[in-house]
Amino acid sequence: MTHLADFDTENQYRATVIQTRRLTPADTEEIREIILEAPSDFACQVDQSFGVLITETGEFGNRYHHRLYSVADLPGRNNDKPLITLLVKRCFYVDDFSGERYRGIASNFLCDRKTGDAVILTGPYRLPFAVPEDKKANLILIGMGTGIAPFRAFVKHIYNNVKNWEGRIRLFYGARSGLELLYLNDQDGDLTQYYDQATFAAFHALSPRPHMNDPIALDTALEQQAADLVEMLSCANTYVYIAGYAKIQSMLDKAFSSILGSKEKWEIRKAELIAGNKWAEIIY
After folding, report:
1. Which pLDDT does position 110 carry in this prediction?
2. Which residues neighbour 261 within 8 Å (Cβ) at sequence distance 6 or greater?
3. Which whole number is the average pLDDT over 100-113?
4. DSSP string, 90-151
5. What is the pLDDT of residue 4?
6. What domains sit in the chain, N to C, each tagged with a CATH number?
7. What is the spatial distance between Cα 96 and Cα 104, in angstroms, rounded to a whole number?
8. 171 vs 7, 120, 130, 185, 224, CA distance in Å?
9. Residues 6+ apart with CB under 8 A from 152
10. Which residues contact 139 (CB under 8 A, 6 or more apart)?
11. I want to staple 209 with a disulfide (CB 3.0 to 4.6 A). Which of 83, 214, 247, 267 is the partner?
12. What is the mean pLDDT of the segment spanning 251-279?
């Protein structure tokens, strides 16, 4: 399992915002496209991720917040410095105990940046999920919210750079509302339409009432594909990769227990995947 704390932040780079624009209407959730000018020695590729490091000063001293973002595009260079495009949704969360609403630190920091402001980058980092050497391997990819971003690059990497991929790839992603699917868009098409490969299929789940904080029905989306998933999980060369917040773990255990027929069957299969290095998580 990989957590954000596991990523090395020793190498830091000062980038500059050269463009920021809102993609969504004013009366909806805010999603911004931000273009950064990075230092000339920051060599980031489209199939990589990078970190944004934020220093917050409070009554107890400095606190550091590290957040990973996937490269949305590399639009070229400016004065021999690489340009990096990222998509950011302004996020808020409700404390489980107090019920108070708080601003997401990294997302609000980035959405508040103006042209000319500085952003500290870390990385770049290799793809968080390894592409199996066996091109007939099956991949079950599951992402929640912004956790889907690494898989967009991962799938793109496989079909653009790995030749003759034969295994099945099934991508499941959950979002609070349809606007969050902008994380997946190339122009106006999301992942359900973007890849025309016979081996690929994507399924998304939205909250039934996004303004009421209802949970995203990702478990339902998984169970609707039960027959396909049972067949894939019966294969020794199937991998399961997960990205998202911690609550996704219990949701998936419940869904896969239902799909395989019992909690015990799922626990055995999950243990086999972990022991065989065919299970990977990035949890934040």
Report:
1. 95
2. none
3. 87
4. --EEE-TTT--EEE-HHHHHHHT--TT-EEEEEEEE--SSPPPS-TT-EEEEEEEGGGGHHH
5. 66
6. 2-124 (2.40.30.10), 138-283 (3.40.50.80)
7. 15
8. 25, 31, 15, 15, 13
9. 70, 183, 184, 191
10. 132, 167, 168, 169, 170, 238, 239, 241
11. 214
12. 94
Backbone angles phi, psi at 114, to 5 degrees: -110, 165
**How far apart, in whole angstroms, are the C-alpha atoms of residue 284 and residue 91?**
14
Question: For 8-33, how does the pLDDT look when each residue is reduced to its tens digit (9 = 90+)?
Answer: 888 999 999 999 999 777 877 787 88
- Cβ–Cβ under 8 Å, residues 100 and 94: yes
CA distance 99 to 115: 35
CA distance 119 to 113: 8
Six-digit token pair at 94?
């409700």
Structure confidence by residue, pLDDT tens digits, 169-211 = 998 887 655 545 554 544 434 555 556 678 888 887 655 444 4
pLDDT of amino acid 140: 96
